[in-house]
């Protein structure tokens, strides 16, 4: 198996064990531009859930959620937190799917169809 395939897929799969550290190291120390590109993409998709987690805690601490149905601020905070959770789950599955694609992608295939 090609080491570039392993490095590209490891940067995505690292969401399971070291989300920000592994893609950062691969991005800094890789010598191939394609591996650096995938590590940078994986790093961005690993940082976004951390930012959304921070924002959801900030929203919960700044807005007092009440049971009153007319509380607009509480509704906005709840909607924002649910949106952040959904985005985090989607990015998690994106990283897993992308990691599998990097492992099974055939290096001899081109990205573009030529006639």
UniProtKB/TrEMBL annotation:
Q: Does the keyword Membrane apply?
A: yes
- Pfam families to which the protein is assigned, alphabetical: MamF_MmsF
The superkingdom listed in its UniProt entry is: Bacteria
Keywords of this protein's UniProt record, alphabetized? Answer: Membrane, Transmembrane, Transmembrane helix
Q: Mind telling me which InterPro entries this protein's record contains?
A: MamF_MmsF
Compartment(s) where it occurs, according to its Swiss-Prot or TrEMBL record: Membrane
Task: State the annotated membrane topology for this chain.
Answer: Multi-pass membrane protein
Q: What is this protein called?
A: DUF4870 domain-containing protein
What organism is the protein native to? Listeria aquatica FSL S10-1188
Q: What is the lineage of its organism?
A: Bacteria, Bacillati, Bacillota, Bacilli, Bacillales
